[in-house]
Amino acid sequence: MKVVAENRKARHLYDILERLEAGIELKGTEVKSLRNHAVSLDQSFCHVKDGEMWLHNMHIAPYHFGNVFNHDPRRSRKLLLKKREILRWGSLVEQKGLTIVPLRVYFNERGKAKVEIALVKPKKLYDRRRELMEREEKRTLERLLKYRA
Predict the structure, then answer these.
(1) Handedness of CA 2, 16, 27, 78 (dihedral sign)
(2) Where residue 98 sits, what CATH number does that domain have?
(3) CB of 20 within 8 A of CB of 118?
(4) pLDDT tens for residues 36-82?
(5) pLDDT, average across residues 118-138
């Protein structure tokens, strides 16, 4: 598996409840740009519309040699999932106020472009601060134990 892009900020801002692998409908120049790692997942999100899941705001840079056939960098892209998965996640988003966020884009063993999406719940500011404090305490404790032994 070859990871192309990762959304590290999502792990900081959200509590991840469930993960799912989805195919993504791309044009030819988009695939070539993905192979060049010219993609950004910042501020991208998914939503369900008419029984289909769409990925919005993912930026795939235009392919350098694409000329007239280049794509729009921020166009909405359709995610390829099973119908029951789309319906289940769509209902959870509507009922519980959750969000669907892409975590990473990669090529699988067969060379197909895939997106790992997650059903997430936003963290509160105090939760994020507490998490940072715990991580810092753990680091200092490990540092002290390292020099003690």
Answers:
(1) positive
(2) 2.40.280.10
(3) yes
(4) 998 999 889 999 999 999 999 999 998 888 777 788 888 899 999 99
(5) 91
Range of the domain at 44: 2-123
Rg (C-alpha) for the chain, rounded Å, is 19
pLDDT tens-digit profile of 10-37?
888 899 999 999 999 988 888 888 899 9
Q: Per-residue pLDDT tens for 104-117?
A: 999 999 989 999 99
Strand partners, 102: 117
Cα–Cα distance measured from residue 80 to residue 74, given in angstroms and rounded to the nearest whole number: 18
Q: How many domains does the chain have?
A: 1
Q: Find where tokens 């359709």 sit.
A: 78
**Alpha-carbon distance 130 to 30, whole Å?**
40
How far is residue 36's CA from residue 7's CA, in Å, rounded to a whole number?
17
> Are the CB atoms for 71 and 30 separated by under 8 Å?
yes
